[in-house]
Automatic annotation (TrEMBL):
<dbReference type="InterPro" id="IPR013783">
    <property type="entry name" value="Ig-like_fold"/>
</dbReference>
<keyword id="KW-0119">Carbohydrate metabolism</keyword>
<dbReference type="Pfam" id="PF01915">
    <property type="entry name" value="Glyco_hydro_3_C"/>
</dbReference>
<comment type="pathway">
    <text>Glycan metabolism; cellulose degradation.</text>
</comment>
<keyword id="KW-0325">Glycoprotein</keyword>
<dbReference type="GO" id="GO:0009251">
    <property type="term" value="P:glucan catabolic process"/>
</dbReference>
<feature type="signal peptide">
    <location>
        <begin position="1"/>
        <end position="20"/>
    </location>
</feature>
<dbReference type="InterPro" id="IPR050288">
    <property type="entry name" value="Cellulose_deg_GH3"/>
</dbReference>
<dbReference type="Pfam" id="PF00933">
    <property type="entry name" value="Glyco_hydro_3"/>
</dbReference>
<protein>
    <recommendedName>
        <fullName>beta-glucosidase</fullName>
        <ecNumber>3.2.1.21</ecNumber>
    </recommendedName>
</protein>
<dbReference type="Pfam" id="PF14310">
    <property type="entry name" value="Fn3-like"/>
</dbReference>
<dbReference type="InterPro" id="IPR017853">
    <property type="entry name" value="GH"/>
</dbReference>
<dbReference type="InterPro" id="IPR036881">
    <property type="entry name" value="Glyco_hydro_3_C_sf"/>
</dbReference>
<keyword id="KW-0624">Polysaccharide degradation</keyword>
<keyword id="KW-0326">Glycosidase</keyword>
<dbReference type="InterPro" id="IPR002772">
    <property type="entry name" value="Glyco_hydro_3_C"/>
</dbReference>
<dbReference type="InterPro" id="IPR026891">
    <property type="entry name" value="Fn3-like"/>
</dbReference>
Amino acid sequence: MRAPWAHSLLALSVATSALAATNTSSSSNSSTITAYLADGYLDMGIASDAYEKAKAFVAPLNNTEKIAIVMASSFTSDNASWSAYANTDGVDGLNFYYFVSAFPMTNALTQTWNRDLIAAQFNAVGAEYFGTGNNVVDGALLGPLGRVPEGGRQNEAFTPDPFLAGIAVAEGVTGQNSAGVIAGVRHFLLYEQETNRTAGGGDSSVYSSNADDRTLHEVYMWPWGDAIKSGAMAVMCAMPRVNGTHSCSNNELLSGKLKMELGFPGFVYPDESAQFTSYSAATAGLDYSPYSNGLWTQASLSAGIANGSLPQARLDDMAIRAVLPHYFVGLDTADLPAKTSYTAFRDVRGNHSTLIRQIGGESMALLKNNNSNGGGLPLNKPHTISLFGAHAGPAVSGPNYAWSVGGTGADVFQGHLALGGGSGETSLPYLVTPFNSLTQRAIEDNSMIWWIMNNTFSSSSSGNSFGLASGTGVAPSFTEYASNSDVCLVFINSWSGEGSDRSELYNTEQDDLVSTVAGSCNNTVVVVNVSGPRLLEAWIENDNVTAVIYGGLLGQESGNAIADVLYGDVNPSGKLIHTIAKNTSDYPASVCETAECDFSEGVYIDYRWFDKQAIEPRFPFGHGLSYTTFTYGTVTATITNSTALGSKYATGQLGLGGLADLFDEVITVNTTVQNSGALDGAEVAQLYVSFPDEAAQPVRVLRGFEKVNITTGATSSVSFSVRRRDVSYWDVAAQNWAVASGTYTFGVGSSSRDIRGNATLTI
Ligand SMILES: *[C@@H]1O[C@H](CO)[C@@H](O)[C@H](O)[C@H]1NC(C)=O
Ligand SMILES: *[C@@H]1O[C@H](CO)[C@@H](O)[C@H](O)[C@H]1NC(C)=O
Ligand SMILES: *[C@@H]1O[C@H](CO)[C@@H](O)[C@H](O)[C@H]1NC(C)=O
Ligand SMILES: *[C@@H]1O[C@H](CO)[C@@H](O)[C@H](O)[C@H]1NC(C)=O
Ligand SMILES: *[C@@H]1O[C@H](CO)[C@@H](O)[C@H](O)[C@H]1NC(C)=O
Ligand SMILES: *[C@@H]1O[C@H](CO)[C@@H](O)[C@H](O)[C@H]1NC(C)=O
Ligand SMILES: *[C@@H]1O[C@H](CO)[C@@H](O)[C@H](O)[C@H]1NC(C)=O
Ligand SMILES: *[C@@H]1O[C@H](CO)[C@@H](O)[C@H](O)[C@H]1NC(C)=O
Ligand SMILES: *[C@@H]1O[C@H](CO)[C@@H](O)[C@H](O)[C@H]1NC(C)=O
Ligand SMILES: *[C@@H]1O[C@H](CO)[C@@H](O)[C@H](O)[C@H]1NC(C)=O
Ligand SMILES: *[C@@H]1O[C@H](CO)[C@@H](O)[C@H](O)[C@H]1NC(C)=O
Ligand SMILES: CC(=O)N[C@H]1CO[C@H](CO)[C@@H](O)[C@@H]1O
């Protein structure tokens, strides 16, 4: 069912790592990096039992059976029986199925900065996979990370900040695996845009991402370490090339970086149009392929074994890696239901709608709020309310829409937007729009509610001649409704999806709508749901715009979640996961239109770039207000493991996620946060680290966050645990993570540009 452009992701390129270079295959190219689990190079840790079971399962099999496994076939023989995995798309809910839930998209989920909710959503999605008989989730996207603000899949991804993405994906992987399904993580690596990811089916013009070694490690590989450490057992390689070589045939990337450096013990599988070679994909490190497009068959792989193109040890390793995740998540003992058809009534939703609404509400960031003169938020039983914009209510048909935005360059959705396109488009069973939920509120509060659910409605065509005959004394026009309302709610969105990047970061039609309404309404509240960063410059400084709430795409309960925040049932606690710039040109990168895409901005994406260049953002990364206020206490920083910090370079054994000591907790940073306002609320306290010069790091990087719920007047203590890797930089010459000597500053605050207290430490 999936379109050929369905997923893609990442390919790293290659600086030969010291670790990887030592193990080369003797049986094929001497330059080929091998990463056979049987060589014992990896401490299997939490995967040890699964590895032993996988080895025992594969040991008696003959090559026919091993090849069947790796080419995603099922078999039953004297020795064993094996069922191919059932994988399907949908990081935030199953694609295509009826009677499944449409969860908030990952960009919204991440805006909660709430570890428990991230785990809970991924677990609930996993439960719906299990219930429909699917056992591999083509799931979490660490690629795209977010280099390109126009990137079409930013709504499926976490955030351009590698630290936050890493913490979030770890929660997600754990949550999903514990539902008894295999959390697939996509796409390895440097897949940062849709444009030219395919080239009319041919491979020659698929773009190549070229990043330097330091950028590769400090930004793009970083969150994969967390994913693998937490038990990611399936990794999808991507459509683009890296350093000129297709990701799924890229030995340096798959065997060098993913398996030898990040200690990945499971299987690599290709995106649907991402496998271009047969033996060299296998020797590069591709393990399992439901999408080999005929490149892997019993005949071709047997011939490869026979003539030496495919080493026997490699086939054995592929089979073991393919089987290991089955044991890791307990599919050997689970009672996985038979896979259901897309349309059969097997309702797997449980009570997930409650979680969906909670996440939606907790994810919205309050960017601006001027509640003097009775304006702004939260709303308090307004007498007259008007709703403006196509995003306020349902599209003319729905709730689901064309699956692909590929090639359309769609930037605005003419209806309430709750999902992106492509593999991010879960099948909505229903959609609560703001129109639904706000009408209900108006009924409860005895308010009066008007609407114009069109971005360009022309008052002249509406027939002013009806005038008073409309029955309310107010003709349906932007200005008439706006000037007669206690509060004017304007709804705007930005749409994108797999297969197409956005063509703009703001939309004139929508911005004109906001300005028109604000021109006649001194209490204009704007609700923004985005697929990626959206500029707000056209109207953000207008004093009549009293409040702005901003979030990702919220799934099936979208309208309820928005109303919960507008009316103060939920006190906003979302924080931006990307920087909102004043100008498009303030961002360091945009869509690459050529075959070679050089990541020349290096590690400086999102706020790292704004800080380096001293560019004032409109709203910084991490920003988000509350209906209450928070006061921070003194910050302290203490070394908790000086043994670990005694050596400059990481020295531990290679385990899942990287060298084991990278994950040692070495420093604790403590502070307190007081709720100094009149309402209960939650604050996301953020830890930013500034390094000594030797480390050559950005001005500050996020290295911790804690979301705390604090009742009015109360004080919470907040403690950040800093790992060795969090104070390390990638030493290109040494090909290892190093801790620089010198003074580190630990700044704690409410956003990346609102540091409330610092502590320093010399290491
Ligand atoms: C790509 O090439 C650059 C420059 O040679 C190198 O630093 C980088 O590590 C390579 N990337 C990968 C994934 O091999
Ligand atoms: C592998 O084993 C199966 C059944 O156990 C058998 O049918 C098949 O012929 C064997 N293949 C080879 C190549 O020996
Ligand atoms: C061996 O290396 C050559 C050149 O780098 C490459 O074309 C070929 O595909 C490699 N063979 C294998 C089995 O990896
Ligand atoms: C809007 O204008 C009205 C009429 O002048 C005034 O009563 C009200 O306080 C104003 N509201 C805001 C939020 O400024
Ligand atoms: C909005 O209304 C105008 C007329 O005022 C109409 O031309 C346009 O098609 C409408 N837009 C949508 C998306 O329905
Ligand atoms: C603000 O709204 C008032 C009507 O309440 C209007 O007279 C004024 O021009 C508006 N100001 C701006 C800057 O749009
Ligand atoms: C990349 O995409 C752009 C815009 O679609 C196109 O003009 C260009 O030819 C493509 N480049 C390659 C190498 O395919
Ligand atoms: C401190 O670090 C050392 C060296 O990595 C490690 O062996 C030890 O387990 C750590 N201690 C604690 C309490 O984490
Ligand atoms: C705060 O507490 C409320 C009420 O118990 C709960 O609904 C909400 O999820 C909590 N938020 C956080 C961030 O823990
Ligand atoms: C930091 O806070 C944690 C949790 O409250 C506490 O256990 C720890 O002792 C504190 N550390 C220091 C150095 O104050
Ligand atoms: C914290 O340190 C930074 C520089 O590292 C400085 O700009 C900022 O003003 C300090 N903030 C506080 C609250 O001390
Ligand atoms: C660095 C590394 O992982 N080296 C391994 C290479 O493979 C041999 C066995 O074939 C292991 O003993 C080494 O540890």
